[in-house]
Amino acid sequence: MNKLMMSALIAAGFATAVPQTMAQTANPAPGATQGQHAKGFHHGKQAFSLPSERIEARLAYIKTALKITNAQQTQWDNFAGVMRKQAKEADVRMQEHRAKMAANTERKRPTAIERLERQQAFMAAASVRIGERLTVQKPLYAALSPEQQQVADKVLAGQGRKHGGNGRNGGHHGGHGRA
């Protein structure tokens, strides 16, 4: 597998894994006591706890930023449809994972082979999702004006993560190469 394909798969993995991790391990607000956080998390609805709950806002932002014209509407609708479908699929994956974690009281650590198999399955599924997005994003991008393409390069590139990272490793995630 070439470096570009591997980078795309890893990026897709982080784009999907980071929101899931954040949703599962939400940190309390600064100054909030543990009881206040637990009360708000368990008794109140957490804002945007599932991808499908935030996809419409994200699509509205992208459409406004790109200034989609009537002539580009068909390509936009195809793109938005895939994004909605993938958000609903992510909801299912997150809910299944949450249910599995709640039912697993034993918390047995997976073996090295099990972890690799899970990673392989995740990467294969991520590759399929990237392929679906490319199928609709390429025609949309081609229909955009040069000015719109410059905006698209910014608003479509991240899709779930910020560019530039956290200041470590040149924006790459992971703990390798620490000084």
Low-confidence stretches: 17-44, 160-179
Computed CA radius of gyration, to the nearest angstrom = 19 Å
What is the succession of H and E elements?
HHHHHH
Q: How many H/I helices?
A: 6
Most strands sheet: none
Give the overall silhouette: elongated
Global mean pLDDT? 74
Strand residue percentage: under 5%
Structural class: mainly alpha
Cα distance, first to last residue?
29 Å
Which percent range fits the helix content? 55-70%
Q: How many E-type strands?
A: 0
How would you characterize the overall build of this protein?
With 179 residues, this protein is mainly alpha-helical. The chain has a domain at 49-163. Helices cover 69% and strands 0% of the residues. It contains six helices and no strands. Helix 3 packs antiparallel against helix 4 (73-103). The longest helix has 32 residues, at 112-143.
Helices and strands, with pairings:
Elements: H1 3-24, H2 34-43, H3 51-66, H4 73-103, H5 112-143, H6 146-158
Concise description?
With 179 residues, the protein is mostly helical. It has helices spanning 3-24, 34-43, 51-66, 73-103, 112-143, 146-158.
List keywords for this structure.
6 helices; 179 residues; 69% helix
